[in-house]
Design a protein that fits this description.
The chain is mainly beta. About 5% of the residues lie in helices and about 60% in strands. It has a 24-stranded antiparallel barrel.
Length: about 525
């Protein structure tokens, strides 16, 4: 009980200190709102959970403070993990940690057309669609590969030049590798952009060759077509000599392309990818510098997002096609099909890794959805998803039905039913998952949802095994600055994926609290 009381008091004090007491309509005015000194911005994100069965407590807090004055700006982020998630892939050595993990100072010279931005300290940066470089933070999947160094962005006569040098933080919380990168983009022609990127890492171990990455991209917009295409190559002298005996200057290659066509009520989106030995990472392999487009659909439903196949920058090719059509003002149809395969035996990846494996389908999925608004009070979404996965060696079929009832302009009831039939292609076992979600929304303040999941398996003929998970979740907006979320109950294990990057979330039974405050 002591482990629960201490964080609870801490959470209460944070709520009061950041948000103040709730206000009634009579005393709610601009005079009562919290006003920070000019130029200061504060954002605080807190997540606390306690697993009753595992006796596991996790407390994570990120506090950002930024200040802007004239052409200068500066900021810090104070991280508090007491304790952090026990998974080393998430905590990266910061099991119990409290320190300033991110700090910067920036000067903005000139204007948006002709000028220069100089950042010293920690920073993020993305070149193009992330084929060569994607330095970013996403707390939902615990990704933070920020660099510590210097970044310069210059703008002149339709040219944008970005140059940076920085050190990433490894899983051991040390910064030794050095990353150099430069990106040049030209937007002087009407409806078309050109760009090129180059990056090179400098390993901290003597005698290990650098990895060099380069790409060219084009982004035209013609009539109702929007196109993006980027081709990249990877070079490494160690691979060149040991694998190709000096005959091949390229150690990997990549291509990503997307085409969007839209006409009146119809749109068509197509994507293609080829990532062949194109992972760009630190010498110890714990920091990934590039995250190209995954070409995978992300869904708003629990079961469809439960077992997604993660992105592999080294060994995959595939495509995705999505068509959207609106029939009048009341019906909207979406259809998607995608397929990702591993690379053949003559690929850079297999030649470098010394394997000779046949080409296999990594992921195949199809999705069809119809939204229909019956009247001002009721709308329905019916969907069907199909997936085949190589990692889990399963195939699944998932029908979904969702109904929304609009009580008035502010209050909505939503009922969602998901059913998933999964077949294990190794054992031929079939099992079922069912999810029932009932949610009440009172915009913009309150949300309440009840979620129940039942898994039915038959490991032996005639022996039925069922597991049940259920939780109640409250969401509330406190004042104008703070969003609160509280969850009680149990939740099934599964992956959380964003952009093809995944984090495994274990089974949970307990209480979870989240608070996001912005000023």
């Amino acid at each position: 009980m002591k482990n629960i009381i201490v964080p609870s008091v801490f959470l209460f004090l944070l709520i009061i200190s950041f948000s103040g007491f709730p206000q009634t309509e009579e005393n709610e005015s601009s005079e009562n709102e919290i006003v920070l000194p000019d130029g200061i911005g504060i954002a605080n994100q807190l997540e606390y959970s306690y697993d009753i069965e595992k006796k596991l407590e996790i407390l994570e807090n990120w506090l950002n403070v930024d200040y802007n004055k004239g052409i200068f700006s500066a900021g810090i982020r104070f991280d508090l993990f007491q304790p952090n998630d026990p998974n080393p892939a998430i905590n990266r050595g910061k099991v119990r940690y409290a320190d300033i993990a991110f700090k910067y100072i920036q000067a903005e010279i000139g204007d948006v057309d002709e000028g220069m931005d100089i950042t010293v300290g920690n920073f993020y940066s993305v070149f193009g669609r992330g084929l060569i470089l994607k330095i970013y933070e996403d707390r939902s999947i615990r990704i933070d590969n920020n660099l510590l160094g210097v970044k310069v962005v210059g703008r002149y006569s339709n040219l944008i030049l970005t140059a940076l040098t920085g050190l990433p933080e490894s899983i051991n919380s040390v910064r030794r590798d050095i990353l150099h990168a430069v990106d040049l983009e030209y937007k002087g022609l009407e409806n078309i952009r050109f760009g090129g990127s180059f990056a090179s890492n400098q390993p901290d171990v003597e005698g290990i060759a650098r990895t060099r990455m380069a790409s060219l991209r084009i982004q035209p917009s013609i009539w109702n077509f929007d196109l993006y295409a980027e081709y990249g190559i990877k070079q490494n002298d160690d691979i060149k000599q040991s694998i190709f005996n000096g005959s091949r200057p390229i150690a990997g290659r990549a291509f990503y392309g997307s085409l969007i066509f839209y006409y009146e009520n119809f749109s068509l989106i197509g994507e293609y990818k080829l990532y062949d030995n194109f992972t760009f990472q630190s010498n110890d392999g714990t920091v990934i510098y590039n995250t190209p487009p995954s070409v995978r659909k992300e869904y708003p439903y629990i079961l469809l997002n439960r077992h997604p196949s993660p992105l592999n920058q080294a060994n995959e090719k595939g495509f995705q096609i999505e068509a959207d059509y609106s029939i009048g003002d009341h019906t909207f149809i979406t259809a998607t099909f995608s397929q990702t395969k591993t690379l053949p035996s003559n690929s850079f990846y297999q030649r470098v890794s010394g394997t000779n494996l046949p080409l296999r389908t990594q992921l195949k999925e199809g999705y069809f959805q119809v939204n229909h608004t019956w009247n001002n009070f009721i709308s329905t979404t019916a969907a069907m998803g199909y997936r085949e996965e190589l990692d889990s060696d399963t195939k699944s079929l998932t029908p979904i039905l969702e109904n929304k009832i609009y009580l008035d302009d502010y209050n909505t009831l939503k009922l969602t039913i998901e059913h998933q039939q999964t077949t294990d292609r190794t054992t031929a076992e079939q099992y079922y998952n069912d999810v029932l979600q009932a949610e009440y929304l009172s915009a913009p303040k309150l949300s309440v949802s009840i979620v129940t999941e039942v898994q039915t398996k038959e490991p032996d003929e005639g022996r039925i095994v069922r597991k049940v998970w259920s939780f109640l979740q409250f969401g509330y907006k406190l004042g104008d600055h703070t969003d609160l979320s509280v969850l009680f109950g149990s939740r099934q294990a599964g992956n959380i994926c964003v952009g093809g990057v995944c984090r495994f979330e274990p089974e949970f039974r307990g209480v979870e609290f989240k608070m996001l405050t912005r000023f």
